[in-house]
Every structure is written in C-alpha cells, then in structure tokens.
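4.2 Preliminary Data

To establish feasibility before requesting continued support, the project team ran the inverse folding procedure on a target of 216 residues. The structure was first converted into the token representation described in Section 3, and no sequence information of any kind was made available to the design step. The complete token record follows.
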C-alpha cells in the first residue's frame, strides 16, 4: 500500500475543502442563471446589467478558487488527492470564465436578436451547472452518495451531447438564414463561446467521474 493511500485511510481529513468547493459551485450556478436570463431576454436594456452581474460572479469565482489553492498549500491531508481537488476547482473556475466571456461578447457585439440556438445552449449550461452543484454538494458524504455523483456525471455528459446537436444545427441555420455578414460573424462567435462553456462543464464532469472511480 502506497504511503499516500495509507495516509488517506488513517489520517484525519480536513473537511474545509467541501464548503469551499461548494461555494465555487454555487457561484458557477448563479452565473449560469444570469446567463440564461441574458439569452432569454428580448429587452436589450437589461443586457448590460446582467453582463455586469455575471462579471461580478466571475470575480467572486476567482477569489473562491484562489482560496481553495491557498488551503491546498497549507493542508497536509486532504479528503481527496490534492490534484483532484485542484482540477475540480480549476475547471469550475474555467466554466465561470467561459460564461463571462459569452456574456461579454453580447455586451461587446450587441446583436440585433438572439437566435434560438443561443437560448437553448444557455438553458443547457444552466442545467449542467445545476448537475455540478448537486454533485459537489454530495462530496462531503461521498461514501453514501457516490452513486448519485456518478448519475450527475452521466447527465452532464448527456447534456454535452445535446449541446453538440444544438450547436451544429444552430451554426448551419445561421449560415442559411442570416443575410447580414456582420451579424453572422457576431452570432457565430457568441454561439461558439456558449458551446465552449458546455465543454468546460463536461470537463468538470470528467473530474467528478475520476473521483468516483478512485474512491467509490
């Protein structure tokens, strides 16, 4: 048995990482909620305020992730391998960053209207962050809820596959129907950024799946 494994079995674990990870997951889910509101709103006067709010969540996400990394440097025994905690925190922060980039592109480009694909992708992003939040919340009682965590990772993967279809159909429709070249470029970039957000959520799911495989 490796020394690291022995330590994880017999040494007391530091529980502070669970609320810290959960804090980041909550910020992630709030950012996704705001993003969904942004892309479902036809009132352009609301866009700037929503984008500002999403940026504020991105700043909170950076601080929360930084706190986790600081605790990793100051803690000897962690509840999971420190590289898994680091990856989970880093990848959740990557999702928040991608959500913010999607919002800032809306603020920068101010498209005439949001195509259906953007609305649907924002909805998938929100569903995905909810799965992440629920999975992370169960890590503190992992032995009891590891099958639930696994189920959340499967749903995250399903949502990523759904987003691929929405993305492909959305881009295809955009090139067929958008006659304004400037609007086409704007909307293509926004759709691509939203699809990247979904891919980042799937990366979080992969890390959660790794934790399930290692510790279940």
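Position-by-position output of the design step:
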């Amino acid at each position: 048995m490796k020394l690291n494994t022995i330590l994880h079995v017999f040494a007391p674990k530091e529980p502070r990482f669970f609320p810290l990870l959960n804090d980041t997951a909550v910020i992630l889910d709030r950012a996704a909620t705001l993003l969904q509101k942004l892309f479902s709103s036809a009132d352009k006067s609301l866009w700037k305020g929503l984008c500002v709010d999403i940026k504020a969540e991105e700043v909170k996400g950076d601080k929360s992730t930084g706190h986790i990394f600081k605790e990793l440097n100051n803690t000897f025994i962690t509840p999971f391998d420190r590289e898994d905690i680091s990856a989970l925190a880093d990848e959740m922060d990557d999702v928040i960053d991608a959500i913010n980039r999607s919002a800032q592109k809306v603020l920068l480009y101010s498209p005439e209207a949001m195509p259906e694909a953007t609305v649907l992708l924002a909805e998938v992003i929100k569903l995905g962050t909810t799965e992440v939040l629920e999975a992370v919340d169960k890590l503190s009682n992992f032995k009891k809820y590891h099958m639930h965590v696994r189920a959340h990772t499967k749903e995250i993967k399903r949502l990523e596959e759904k987003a691929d279809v929405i993305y492909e159909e959305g881009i295809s429709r955009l090139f067929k129907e958008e006659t304004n070249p400037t609007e086409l470029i704007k909307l293509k970039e926004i759709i691509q950024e939203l699809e990247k957000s979904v891919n980042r959520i799937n990366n979080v799911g992969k890390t959660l799946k790794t934790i399930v495989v290692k510790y279940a």
